[in-house]
């Protein structure tokens, strides 16, 4: 996920339509195996969540597009060297 401000992450984690809602805490790093998550929650196989990248669709099923999802809350903006 691109760099996001803490306020955006907090607001998104409270929205049931956002993938961040599934995290038990937005203060810790998370690794999610998509196949395992679908096995645990079969309803996620077709559930579409709000987009977080610059995709053309408004919603997508992240568990079908990626084998794993990683959340790292304390990120930094990229610094380009000249």
Describe this structure in words.
The structure is a single chain. The protein has helices at residues 6-13, 34-40, 62-65, and strands at 30-33, 49-50, 59-60, 68-71. It has three helices and four strands. Strand 2 and strand 3 form a beta hairpin. The protein is of the alpha+beta class and 82 residues long.
Provide a short characterization of the protein structure.
The chain is 23% helix and 15% strand. Strand 2 (49-50) and strand 3 form a beta hairpin. The protein has 82 residues and is an alpha+beta fold.
SSE blueprint and pairings:
Elements lengths: L5 H8 L16 E4 H7 L8 E2 L8 E2 L1 H4 L2 E4 L11
Antiparallel strand pairs: 1-4, 2-3
Annotation keywords:
82 residues; alpha+beta; two-stranded antiparallel ribbon; 23% helix
Shape assignment: globular
Uncertain segments are: none
Q: Into which percent range does the helicity of residues fall?
A: 10-25%
Task: Give the overall average pLDDT.
Answer: 81
Q: Total helix count?
A: 3
Radius of gyration: 14 Å
| Beta content | 5-15%
Q: Whole-Å distance between the termini?
A: 24 Å
Order of helices and strands: HEHEEHE
Widest sheet: strand ordering: 1-4
Helix/strand structural class: alpha+beta
Count of distinct strands: 4
